[in-house]
Structure formats: structure tokens, C-alpha cells
Amino acid sequence: MTTMHTTTPSAIGQPLDRVDGRPKVTGSAHYSAEIPLPDMAYAYVVGSRIAAGRVCGIDASAATAEEGVLAVLTHENLPRIAEQPPLVPSLAGTAAPGQTYFPMQDDIVHYAGQQIALVVADTWERAQHAAHLLRFSYEETAPVTTLDQGRDRAYVPESIFGGWIPGRIERGDVEAGLRDADVRVEATYTYAANHHNPIEPSSTTAHWDGDTLLLYDSTQGVNATQMTVSRLLGVPMSRIRVIGHYAGGSFGCKAMIHAHPTLAALAAREVGRPVKLALTREQMFTSVGHREEQEQHVTLGATREGRLTAVRHHKLSPTSPFDDWAEPSLGTSSQIYACPHYEGVYRLFRANTMTPTFMRAPGEASGMFALECAMDELAHELGVDPVELRLRNYTDVDAMSGFPWSSSGLRECYERGARRFGWSGRDPRPATRREGDWLIGTGMATATYPVAPLANPQRARARLYADGTAVVQAATPDFGTGVATVMTQVAADGLGMSVERCRFENGDTDLPNIAAAVGSAGAGMISAAVHSAATALRGQLVNKAVADAGSPLHGADPVDVVVRDGVMTAGTASEAYTDLLRRNGRPDAEALGQWNPPAHDIPYGMMTFGAQFAEVAVDAELGLVRVRRMTGAFAPGRVLNAKTARSQLMGGMLWGLGQALLEANHMAPDTGRWANSSLAEYLVAVNADAPDVDIELIEVEDDIVNPLGVKGVGEIGQVGVAAAIANAVHHATGRRVRKLPITIEDLL
Ligand code: MOS
């Protein structure tokens, strides 16, 4: 924690406006698909119309005869990849392919929309037109698509989530725990598949210069793109540079590196010109992963007083024919409540789908829906207030590892959230409050999100120029969360300068390697490296001044020197950085900062906590659900920027509303195609759905997670919201809806 006190925070925490706000609204921010390159060619992807079988014939004659068509690439002529890296999450600092099946290496079709051809032409329109002239013949087999088809063929995988999480998690003896229970609650919860749909669809522009490849990619991790493409193409890392200055949202679908960046590079090499490959909105539904449909079965055992004796949490979900992937929905139920006996089991079945992927609060959002609805059912059964039930099962230690939380704040989240929301005095009886046609109810849930256990050294570079401006650099992209803004603040405080004189530069593999913007880890990881680089540079300048006979600070003890607005002061003596550099004839000064995250096995549980409250009105006749207000109380450690943090949390809470009431995609059982493939059909919450969202930030200090004690706010806002809303619907109507989204049909 010593590093924390060497900074006097003045910029950190302030509600600074986004540093990239103006370029974004004026259009001077260039996204990956907007990079103009001379002699650019355009690639259009063609997806399979069938979900299972083989491509047994391709007639490309009409397409290749079209003017401007440069290449038609299919499994018959696309160059083979060098090596398929294993599926490991992009958090791990290794290659992170979205799945281990690379398209167009053979004639097999595993899922609808799988890339089976790539048409390259001198304009995008010509490529698209020629693509529609391709004729494919298929040998089709019946697809596996639904939970009901998969139930009997399900297996327990050794591990999921790229090998990070075991397929079975146990402690104690769950059967004994359930036997000893006074009360048991058992229920099945289902959750429809979700698709991310960031406003900017994925795109890559590939440019070869000899044997050196430059990629402009819309990604959460430029290093992840670099490492993945390097392995797939067999091109050394040192010959691949990836730039991603801006990304228009992502939410997990740009965390793993799907096939299109590599396809763009292969196409560009083939035609000898730069190639831009932009996915269409429709292709975003079949090319970059999704949150899998799932069914969760929860059994809780408790004493009369409401103390949990056992938690059993099973999940069934479809995965691709080649990878064991499920989002880790059972993590939080194993950790967050005091309970001696636990059993979590993932069951998967192979279906005709691409490998699912990370999607905002990947696992926590869906797992918490099941757990926190079951807790509400238990509270109802016992006649204990839902907040009180959570407090009775509060734990100071991670219930799975037994290690104390590095920091918590969860009790305060319940208490202050409840006070703000006006929870006390709630009549627990369902269907008793009515306002005209509307039945009114309230519900709550716990929110948690793990502090991601990243292991790689985090690096950043700080450079101060003699003109008094500074730039701090790290490779990470900012996909819209505000990374560039908050890191400017961290850099300014670390250097002892004003934010106006500091600039954060990012989104380029030529800059120091650092975590991708994934897993709510960006703020903690990147701030650690930026803080370390900035304070290293400040230390270097202070040491130089006190050793310099020409400096007014000569002979001062470096620990007595404070720096504000670029001026070093010790007692009555002071000197500006710029004067020090100029007097010494130096154009600039530079330092590299490195921070090594705590090892995975440190004896602490690391988790961010919060509590969600919601009030709904349900039209008794029509089944309409309106969320009238929501309160979230969160303890995310140090808040780097009050405005961007709130906007992340508010966005998360509103997304939770969408999960509760709107978001769903279903596969047509006969064709294996997604029912929704546009923003007109795939429903998300809009302003008219958005109620008042009230957010309370609870301060907790954390000396363990990273130097500034930042636990992150990217995903926790979404966790628990759907459960709070479903619980409120029960309170309003007396009806338990155990599926998401909750639709009108469920309440008629
Ligand atoms: Mo997060 S699912 O890495 O956007």
C-alpha cells in the first residue's frame, strides 16, 4: 500500500469528461473499418445456409466472371493455417482464438453461418454482389439445437472456459447438508441465448508490407489479436503489428479473436493488396460467439433460521462440436454465502453452434439469476426478509477457498442500498399492492463479480517532454468504457501534473504489453502499470533534482519532495520539471513501469460486491412489466472517475433490465438458424424502457488487489439485476417466473 501514499490524488476520482468524447462526436476518431489505405480491396464473408453436413460442391463461375472480383476463397483454395492454438481466454496473455475450428480448412459444416467462402473485390458492393452469385451444394444432416435434444447426451467436461474452471466443483457433502436442512427449495431456471450487438460490428483491415503484417482490428486486446494471428499464420510476433485505437463497444464479443482478422490477412496476402473485412450486422450473430442458452437447477437447504446448509447448482448448456465452453455460472454460488456443503456441476452437449464466448458478466449474470431467485424463494418459504436472509448468510471469507476477502463492503451495500431504495417496512405478502391496473412489487439480489486473476506483468511507459507535456502509453484498446480517460487521470496524479498536460496513448501493439480490456480487469491492471510508470518517472526526476548542484532542491531528501502541476517542492525550495530538463539540456525523460499482479494462489478471495433493488409494476390484465426504479449499491474499491464509473454501472443495470425482460435469441430447431439476426428483431432496452437508476458507491480500501485498490466496475452493474426484477415480479403478482426473459405470455 506504500505506493498509494506517494500519490496525492487530485485528478483520480474526479468526474473528468471523456478525453475521446470530442473526436468521437466530431467524427475525427477513426475506427478500424474507417482506415483509408491506397489500393484497398474488400472482402465479403459468405456463411453456410445449413447447420450440419458438408459443402459438396461450389460453383464460383458467375462470381469470378464479375468485374472487379479479385478472388473467391473457399475450402478448396484458401491457404491452410499453420497451427491451431488452444482455446485459452484472452485474459491469460496467450493466443486466444474464439474457437478451435478454423473455417475453410475442410468441407464440414458445423453450424449455420459458418464461413464457407470469402469474396474479394475492388469495392465492397462488388464483393457482396459476387458473393450472392456463388452456388453451393450441400449434403445436409439434421442439426442438434435444443436443450431437450441435448439433455440425454450431456456429459460433464473436465473443464470449461478454456480450461480455467473445472467441470465439477465440490466441498463437504451436499447430500448430508440437504438431509440436515429444515427447509429445502428446489427449482429450475432457464436463460435464453444472448447476442452482444455492440454498435460497431467487428472489422479488420489487413495490410502486408513484404512479410510484415499490419492489422487494424476492432478488438478488446491488440496483443491477443497479434498472438492469435501469429500462431494461425505462422508469422513471428515481431512481424505483426495490431492497431485498434477505437472500438465501438464489444462486451465480450471482441475479447476472443475470432476467424475474421486471420481471414483478412490471408485474403490480403492472396490478392497482394490491403483488404478490409467488415462483418455485417447479420454476420455478428454467427461469427463472434454469444452467451449460450442454459438451464440451471438449484437446490438450497437451510435451517429454520435461514442459515444455508447446502447449495447444489447444476447447469446444462449447448457447446460447439469442438470446444468445451460454458460461461462459469456456478462460480459465485460456490463463493459468496457461508455454507458448509456445495456441489456445482456443468453439463454440456455438442450442438450445431459456434463456440459460445464471453458476454458481459460472463457467468455471473446468468448464475446470479438462478441463485438469487432461489434465495428469494427460500426467504418467502421461511418468512424471513430477503435482505435479512442474505445478511444471515454473509461470509467474511471466500466460502470455496476459505481465504478472507481482500475487501468486502457487502454488508454496507445491503444496508445502504436498502435505505436508499426505501426497502424497510415492505409488506412481504405478494400481490397486495395495487395502483389502478398495476400490481406493484419490489425485489432485491446480491451482485458480485470476481477480481480477475491475471498473472502477466503489466507494463506502461511514461515520457515527459521539456515543454512540460507528458504522454503515457500502454497497448490496451479502449472499447468505450473510458480507459483512456481514467488512465490520463492516473498518469497525471502519478507524475504530479495536471490532466491537461498529460495524454494517454493506447491501442497499438508497438506500445508496452498489458492486459486486454476484459473481465472488468482493465481499470485495476492498467492503472497499476500506468501508476508505476508515472511514479517511476517522477522518482527519476526528483532524484535528478536533489542530486543536481544547480537545482534549488539540491540536497533535499527525495521523500520530502512533493510534486504539483509539474513543480517539485521541498520546504521553501522548488523547481519545475521543465526547468530541470532545460537546464540539463534534455529534450525529455522517460521511464518504463511494470507491475506484477499477485499470484493466483495468494491467501485472499478477491471479489467486488454490490446489492440490487428494483420496483416493478405489472399490468394485471395485460401482463406488461414496467421497471419503475432501480437502486444499486456497489463497493468497487477506488473509483478512478466518478462519471465513467457511474456510467458503466448504470449501463450494466439497464442491460440487466434487458436481460430480465427483453433479450433472447432462439435457434430454429429444424434449421439450426438463429431466429433473430438484426437489431430490429433482437430486443434491447431503449430509453422508453429505462427507469430512474440510482447508484450508491460504497468506499472500501483494498491493499491486496493492486496499487490503487481498484476492483473494477465494468460488469458488476449487470449482475443480480434480472433476479431483483424477477423477484419483484413475484412480489407484485405472486407468480414465479423462472425463465429469462420474462415475457407477457409468462404473466397472462
Ligand atoms: Mo467482458 S465479457 O470481457 O466484456
Automatic annotation (TrEMBL):
Does the UniProt entry include the keyword Oxidoreductase? yes
Q: Which domain of life is it from?
A: Bacteria
Upper taxonomic classification of the species? Bacteria, Bacillati, Actinomycetota, Actinomycetes, Kitasatosporales
SMART domains given in the database record? Ald_Xan_dh_C
Give the residue spans that cross the bilayer: none
Q: Establish whether keyword Oxidoreductase is in the entry.
A: yes
Q: Which UniProt keywords apply?
A: Molybdenum, Oxidoreductase
- Residue ranges of the Aldehyde oxidase/xanthine dehydrogenase a/b hammerhead domain? 26-142
Q: What is this protein called?
A: Xanthine dehydrogenase family protein molybdopterin-binding subunit
Segments carrying the region annotation (Disordered) are 1-25
Bias type Polar residues, positions: 1-11
